[in-house]
Amino acid sequence: MAFALAQRGSTRAALREVDAAVRVLTGVAGAKARAQRGAVFHQIGRLDEAFADYQVAVRVLRRAGDRLGVQRTIVNRALLQAERHEFEAAQRDLVEADGIARELGRELAVGIITGNIGYVAGLRGDVPAALAAFEEAERIIGGQGGQVAAVLQDRAALLLSVGLMTEARQVALRAVEAFRRHGRTLKVPEMQLLLAQVALSERDWTTAAGHARTALQGFKGQGRARWVALARAVVLQATLGAGEPDRVAARDVDATVAALAGRPLAAVQARLDAARLAESRGRDDVASGYLAEAARVRRRGPATLRARGWYAEALRRRRHDPVGAMRAARQGLRVLDEHHAALAASDLRAYSAAHRAELVDVGLRIALAEGRPARVFEWAERGRASRLLVRQVRPPDDPRLAALLPELRVVTAELDRARAEGRYTGRLVSRQVELERRIRDRSRLLRAEVSLPGPVAVRDLAAALGDRVLVEYVQVDDRLLAVSLVDGRLRLHDLASGAEVAELVERVAFALRLGSARASVLLRDVAARLDALLLPFPGDRPLVVVPTGVLHSLPWSVLPSCAGRPVAVSPSAALWHQAATRPPSSGEVVVAGGPGLPGAREEAQAVAALYGRTALVDGEATVEAVLSALETAATAHLATHGVLASDNPLFSALRLHDGQLNVHDVQRLKRVPDTVLLAACDVGRSVVVSGDELLGLSATFIERGTARVIASVVPIPDAETKPLMTAVHRHLVAGVAPARALALAQQEVGPSGFVCIGAG
Questions:
Q1: 695 three-class SS
Q2: At what angle are helices 107-124 and 149-161 packed, to 10 degrees?
Q3: For 596, left (φ over 0), alpha (ψ -120 to 50), or beta?
Q4: 516 by DSSP, 3-state: which?
Q5: CA atoms of 708 and 582, how far apart (whole Å)
Q6: CA 289, CA 306: separation in Å to the nearest integer?
Q7: Strand 642-643 and strand 653-656: pairing?
Q8: Domain spanning 458-577 has what CATH number?
Q9: Distance CA 674, CA 706 (A)
Q10: Which of 88, 285, 596, 597 is most buried, most CB within 10 Å of its CB?
Q11: Burial 299-315 (b: 16+ CB within 10 A, else e)
Q12: Which of 228, 188, 225, 217 has the alpha carbon at shortest distance from 45?
């Protein structure tokens, strides 16, 4: 009775019922009543009382030989210990409970315990282990006809923790529906709070506050004081994010922070927010106290918690001890990078970089205040595409993933045919979505074993640059700045408003897409304005550009000062140095042309003829044939339709005869070419996520070890690539370096959306 009342949210009534039972029952029955009361205490946040009841119940049940009672109680105790970050104790309880459930033949309980093992792994920061456990739990529970809502809740929380907001929201909404369907209204406010946290991460302050306030009212009605504090903490974050600190009372903040004792990560975030509020009111001493408390966790606990502690320490020191603040920020970055390096899935590593960006911001602001270009350059580099520096990341072989990719290929090929013939595509689209989900989930279970490279020294970078000019851009608030490195000397430049530059970059893309005479006038005007803002440096030396934000989508050749000038666009200076100083690999030239693209067959054959090769076209241009050729090639030219999946960038793809070659296929290549040319629409463009991390086809080739990719960063008519591409290859055959070959070809043919990404 008490359990049913608690699940419906009537926790006060549940406590009355179970208290009455505890007073009159003894022995095993009394122990079970205590275990149930512990569960109610646990749900309303009275953790010490819950733990005491669990301890008493387990002792009595063990003495009585009640294996089932022990199994149920130690599962609950494990979850409580996990909340307190007592992970070893939690794991011991869950392993024991799993063994008992298997002995008793309780398959549904095995599934539930497996989901709990995933929950604990997620709190520890072991994302692949957590995802694997959730997948197995859903399989077992679903097979037994059980309720998977709790597994969905834990999966949504894990996806949120690694920055996968869209998926977290989708899974959370499924969990809400499932909890309501099964009458488990106790859990609905928890999911509303999770949806509020998703909105916070997306900087949607209004939605976040709305969800959090709804959750707050639900928790109050359920008498769950600790959850009330969690909801208030999210309301505080949303209010501060919206720039409305005057709406927050200091006493409410203090009460919220105090109520979050025992929730380490939430307590740290609440103290960070409280410090921010105190600073906005000129109470620096109060802010320092909150930050000092938050910083105490920097040496213990999961990686995310320790990194937040180092962030608090960096904030605490930034005014009176800037050197110590930068040291703390570096330590926080080291913690996160070591943690993220073990993730084989590119999207997990990219999207989980949000906390990196905050640590980098502390160091960058201190460096700018000092006005020292070398410091600014260091912190600009620390914020750049960190995952791409982890060389030769190839996910481990996985037979199940290998089997899913060809299946997706067949479905996408059939989908293309159905669309071309005007047939119904609903079933095929559903199958494609399901296969992509399974591939994505499977790839995230894998681990990587890699080493983390150190930053490149300025003197080594200058030596490799030679007569080249390097320009690295950073944006702080709305100011766009740059650090240039010329002849071994670093200089800092304050350039322009970030909003103004973003608007001009968008106009460039519009003019290139339009392609009319009027658009040419617009392009010349906008390009000249951008040139004056972005490159106020005299000279025509070869250029290495490290963009930020929208500048990743700028075709640099349209700028007047870049006409005929070799320009290499690199995600980071360290990555450019790594690629530029690596010995070139040997191999053949591979050329392939995809179907349904006007001029692709002719382009592929013309390019192949320049090298005395035969192009893969028509039925020979299959995905497996192209992948096999790529593994032995030094240079590859792929003329085909390209698809940039901006909402799911790891399924960006090239269309070949029997289906799509996507990012997952490239990730599994044993070896990649040194130089790749993608003559396909805008697949050169990457999706830019937190910390200038990049996802997409070009980024994946670079990640896997390709030195340079020539591709378009704006949508272009596919038929227009042949003259430019054949001109590029004529220069390559003559021994001209790729970036210069592209510059010369664009001088001959005219400006385009193509850039040379990587070493140049």
A1: strand
A2: 10
A3: left
A4: coil
A5: 12
A6: 18
A7: antiparallel
A8: 3.30.420
A9: 5
A10: 597
A11: eebbbbbbbbbbbbbbb
A12: 225
Sequence-ordered list of residues with C-beta below 8 angstroms from that of 248, at least 6 positions apart, any chain: 236, 239, 240, 277
Q: What's the rounded Cα separation, in Å, for the pair 57 and 286?
A: 44
Say if CB 559 and CB 530 are below 8 A apart.
yes
Instruction: Give me the residue label for tokens 């009455």.
Output: 20
- Amino acid making up residue 563: A
CB 274 within 8 A of CB 290: yes
DSSP state of 447: B
Q: Which strand (E) or helix (H) includes residue 728?
A: helix 721-733
The stretches of 467-556 forming alpha helices (DSSP H) are: 498-514, 517-534
Predicted structure pTM score: 0.80
**390 close to 452: Cβ distance less than 8 angstroms:** yes
Lowest-confidence segment of 58-67, 448-457, 515-524 by average pLDDT = 448-457
DSSP for 23-38, please give it. HH--HHHHHHHHHHHH
Kindly tell me if the per-residue pLDDT of 392 is higher than 50. no
Predicted pLDDT at 352? 58
- Reading the block at residue 595, the tokens are 């179907």
| Domain boundaries along the sequence of the chain | 399-443, 458-577, 582-758
The residue length of the chain stands at 760
In words, the CATH class of domain 582-758 is alpha beta
Residue with tokens 């090639």: 633
Grouping H, G, I as helix, E, B as strand and the rest as coil, residue 469 is strand
3-state class (DSSP) for residue 152? helix
Among 558, 472, 561, 563, smallest CA distance to 522 is for: 558
pLDDT confidence tier of residue 682, bands split at 50, 70 and 90: low
C-beta separation of 277 from 248 below 8 A: yes
pLDDT digits (tens, 9 = 90+) for 156-193: 988 888 778 888 899 999 999 999 988 888 899 999 99
Copy the structure tokens of residue 604. Answer: 């592929």
Contact status, residue 212 vs residue 234, Cβ threshold 8 Å: yes
> Which residues, 6+ apart, have CB-to-CB distance to 434 below 8 Å?
none
DSSP 653-668: EEEETTEEEEHHHHHT
Say if residues 230 and 260 touch (Cβ distance below 8 Å).
yes
Q: Residue 450 above 70 pLDDT? A: no
- Write down the mean pLDDT value for the chain: 86
Which tokens hold the place of 434?
A: 């399901």
Residue 456 DSSP one-character state: P
- Among 717, 712, 662, smallest CA distance to 685 is for 712
Are residues 91 and 128 in contact, defined by beta-carbon separation less than 8 angstroms?
A: no
Residue with tokens 């044993």: 670
- The tokens 């990686």 sit on which residue? 303
Type of residue found at 163: G
Quote the CA–CA distance of 526 and 559 in Å, as a whole number.
Answer: 9
Q: Determine contact, residues 255/226, Cβ cutoff 8 Å.
A: no
In order, the DSSP letters of 101-119 are HHHTT-HHHHHHHHHHHHH
CB atoms within 10 A of CB 392: 12
> 691: which DSSP letter?
G
Q: Rounded to whole angstroms, how far apart are CA atoms 235 and 250? A: 14
What backbone phi and psi angles, to 5 degrees, belong to 673?
-65, 155
Residue 116's alpha-carbon distances to 136, 179, 535, in angstroms, are 11, 17, 55
C-alpha of 501 from chain center: 26
The amino acid at residue 376 is V
The single-letter code of the amino acid at 485 is L
Closest CA to 746 of 598, 527, 600, 532: 527
- Written as one string, the DSSP assignment of 155-216 is HHHHHHHTT-HHHHHHHHHHHHHHHHHTT-GGGHHHHHHHHHHHHHHTT-HHHHHHHHHHHH
- Sheet of 659-662, strand order: 642-643, 653-656, 659-662
Report the C-alpha gap between 368 and 627 in whole angstroms.
Answer: 46
Q: Classify 639 as helix, strand or coil.
A: strand
- The helix/strand/coil state of 67 is helix
Nearest to 237 by CA among 206, 265, 214: 206
